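New to this. Please check both lines:
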Amino acid sequence: MAVWDDLVGQERVVEQLTAAARAAGAAVEAGRGAAPVEGTNASLMTHAWLFTGPPGAGQVTAARAFAAALQCTSPDLALGGTPGCGFCDGCHTVLAGSHADVKYVRTDGLSIGVGDMRDLVLRASSYPTGGRWSVILVDAAHRLTEAAANALLKGVEEPSPRTVWLLCAPSVQDVLPTIRSRCRLLVLRTPASEAVADMLVRRDGVEPEAARLAALAGQGDVERSRRLAVDEQARTRRAEVLRIPLEVGDVGGCLAAAQRLVDTAKADAETLAETQDAKETDDLRAVYGAAEGSKAPRGMAGAVKELEKRQKSRATRTRRETLGVALLDLLGFYRDVLALQLGSTGALANEDQRQALNRVAQAGPAEGTLRRIEAVLACRRALDRNVDPLLAVEAMTMALRAG
């Protein structure tokens, strides 16, 4: 299976990256580095790439596939084969996350700090140890602090000839102009639901009708569609969220719905903490050689404090992400309601909720639905500003009742 097979509905991006990887291979054979970003031919290689697109479109998937293609050692390449075979040692180790010359950077917290970025810039100044390229893939580049972004700028301004930066962000506006001007931009599009459904049938063995409904409900987010297709718990939680429009008929229902939504997000964070935090703490104790019940070795207290800080930040991010998914489901519901009220004949994202959609659509005018959509968007903005989640969600459910 080629590394590009996980990219759904991104044929144009795959074509560009494949051509760039082929040009990169030719540059390695000729003893050259990456081509300058000023080149207008999409097949030319460059030292920095920026992958953007809507949530779930596959920015990180595309970047990882490109990293594998750059390290591909398939013998077919000498015969004109496509880089990124998916079977050679280079492709396999990149996809498994164990390639020595591919650094994958992701934060579990809310931001990527300057210390981490300085270490990466220092690493980027060296040549690859065994692979063809030294690749640094930064997931969520929009989470860089200002100081970290300035440190990254130095890395992309003065790259090693055999170093490639791959940055992923929701949009080009989320990255400093000085950084994005030195990157080649690739914009991924929202894949068609038909393409996502086909992938679920082929790759995950999902029944065609279940795959179709999951692809519609995922609203272009490939991973979200997969979870809805194969994870019963994900389907149950979505169903609970989509009950909210039917439960906000009185103040008590509004407050109960808000509390349930926030409690679910908190439970997700606590579940992750139970499995991951305990393992991280045990691993840290093992590194310092701390025996159970004995006095902590020198230096361990500071490391534990730093770990707890990261774990707390991760818990906050998990709660936000869970609420974010719920709010996207609500937005999709009210968009479908609006489509019904305006007489649209297009496919609905929540086709499996047709009865509830019709009930809400017949209960009021389209103007009220627009106000409810704005209430959900306002809740998202409030959460981004660190408003207390329960207060933000309660305000939203009360606005949904008012219409």
Q: What stands out?
A: The two ends are 50 Å apart (CA to CA).
